[in-house]
Amino acid sequence: MTTTTPGHVLHAPSTPARPRRASRRLAALAGGLALVVAVPVALSAPASAATPTTSTTVATHAPAVVTKHSKTKVHLSKKTQTRGKAVAKVRVTVHVGRAVASGKVVLKVGAKTWKTVTLKHGTARVQVSKTLKVGKHRITAIYQGASHVTRSKGSAVIKVKKGTPKVVSVAKKYVGTPYRSGASGPRAFDCSGFTRYVFKKAGIKSLPRTSSAQHHVGKTVSRKNAKPGDIIWSPGHVAIYLGGNKMIDAPRPGKTIQVRSIWQSNPTFVRVSAKAVSA
């Protein structure tokens, strides 16, 4: 119980103020803690977080492959060739754009493969075979191509005509040579001496000296099947068949070696050998 004295004012005890001071201190302490926590968080943020960057991926592509086109040509030194004689020359050229090509070229005659040649500075050269058969033949050159270079081909046509048997060629060289009985050449001939000399010179076969013996040296063929280079026999005389009802012979005294029509009514045609009539 509290006793008051008149004229004095009673104050509440100071004890209750302590809790307020404690609250202020706690508040100040709490503010300090908040400051301490906030600063490290702000400082620890990475610089890139403030200015974000975008990473860009660049797509790369392989360069496009360009295919180049080749062009093949076949050139012939001549378009007609005589079988067994001087042959035609074949020149093959291959270009890729404006540049010359390299590699292999397959040559064909008709549908049959002939040979494979190698290009040198874009060119290959060969010769047509002497034994190519009579007729027309297409010569085709096929370029096989290369990496990113197209295949190509070219062709040309050659005509092979029938050649002249060597027996005939040799015989014609002596046109104008005089006839002399018993002569075997080369300055003069009789009929069997002429045929014997020509066949030997042509490298075919050595014939007997007389006309009657030459009659039996080979096989007899019909007039229809006779070929230039066969012997034409009639009693007492021999000549060389030229084809087309023509022959070459040493006729008789006072005459010379000449080409003339077959005058015998029923001559015998003798095939001395296959070589004699081949071109």
Explained architecture:
A hairpin with an 8-residue loop joins β8 (135-143) and β9. Mean pLDDT is 84; it is low at 1-17 and 26-45. It is rod-shaped and about 100 Å long. It has helices at 17-44, 47-50, 166-172, 191-201, 211-214, 274-277; strands at residues 70-76, 80-82, 89-96, 99-100, 104-109, 112-118, 123-127, 135-143, 152-161, 219-221, 231-234, 237-243, 246-249, 258-261, 268-271. The longest helix has 28 residues, at 17-44. The strands form 3 sheets. A 6-stranded antiparallel β-sheet has the order 10-15-11-12-13-14. A 5-stranded mixed β-sheet has the order 2-9-8-5-6, with no helix packed on it. Strands 1, 3, 4 and 7 form a 4-stranded antiparallel β-sheet that branches. The protein has 2 domains: 70-161, Immunoglobulin-like (Sandwich); 166-277, endopeptidase domain like (from Nostoc punctiforme) (endopeptidase fold (from Nostoc punctiforme), Alpha-Beta Complex), CATH 3.90.1720. The chain has 6 helices and 15 strands. It is α+β, with helices and mostly antiparallel strands and 279 residues long. α3 (166-172) packs across α4. One of its GO terms (molecular function) is cysteine-type peptidase activity. This is Peptidoglycan endopeptidase.
